[in-house]
């Protein structure tokens, strides 16, 4: 098997589970697949919703999980205390910047406006030539 070009992948997704139970299963499966592939997860740091599911999937597979959470969201999104590392930052902008620095690419699972904003900011950075990391999205859609 060829070595992956990814050491870590950022996954943007919702702190809600959404309307379809399949979203949780897919998020857990993405986390598990990352772990099984030897790729670490970087995500938003929450224990709840799809964020919690993707982290739990990666942890269940023995993977490394780094959460990046603004301090003001620590209680609203319920910080995941079982991570390999939880980085608490001051702002949403610092969160996105830190997640980008820690990973070799990014993908989006279903989420709301925050997920869309994070995803499109990375696309904009790529368009402006600020990075050349791959950025992808799943076909599951958005939670709204």
Question: What's the structural blueprint in terms of helices and strands?
Answer:
Layout: E1 8-12, H1 21-36, E2 40-43, H2 49-60, E3 65-70, E4 85-89, H3 92-102, E5 106-108, H4 113-127, E6 135-137
Parallel strand pairs: 1-2, 1-5, 2-3, 3-4, 5-6
Helix pairs in contact: 1-2
Task: Characterize the structure shown.
The chain is of the alpha/beta class and 144 residues long. It has one domain (8-137): Rossmann fold (3-Layer(aba) Sandwich), CATH 3.40.50.450. It has four helices and six strands; from the N terminus they run E-H-E-H-E-E-H-E-H-E. The chain has helices at residues 21-36, 49-60, 92-102, 113-127, and strands spanning 8-12, 40-43, 65-70, 85-89, 106-108, 135-137. It has a six-stranded parallel beta sheet, with helices on both faces. Helix 1 (21-36) runs parallel beside helix 2. The mean pLDDT is 91.
Offer a quick outline of the entry.
With 144 residues, the chain is of the alpha/beta class.
CATH class designation:
Alpha Beta
Order of helices and strands: EHEHEEHEHE
What structural class results from the helix and strand content? alpha/beta
Rg for CA atoms: 14 Å
| CATH topology-level name | Rossmann fold
| CA-based shape | globular
Tally of helical runs:
4
Largest sheet: 6 strands, parallel
Salient structural properties:
144 residues, alpha/beta, Rossmann fold, six-stranded parallel β-sheet, 6 strands, globular
């Amino acid at each position: 098997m060829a070595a992956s070009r990814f050491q870590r992948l950022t996954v943007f997704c919702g702190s809600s589970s959404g309307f379809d139970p399949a979203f949780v299963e897919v998020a857990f499966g993405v986390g598990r697949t990352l772990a099984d592939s030897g790729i670490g997860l970087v995500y938003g740091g929450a224990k709840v919703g799809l964020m919690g599911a993707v982290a739990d999937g990666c942890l269940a597979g023995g993977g490394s999980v780094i959460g990046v959470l603004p301090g003001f969201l620590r209680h609203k999104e319920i910080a995941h205390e079982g991570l390999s590392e939880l980085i608490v930052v001051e702002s949403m902008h610092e969160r996105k910047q830190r997640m980008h620095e820690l990973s070799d690419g990014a993908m989006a699972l279903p989420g709301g406006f925050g997920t869309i904003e994070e995803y499109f900011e990375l696309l904009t950075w790529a368009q402006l030539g600020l990075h050349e990391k791959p950025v992808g999205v799943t076909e599951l859609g958005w939670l709204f």
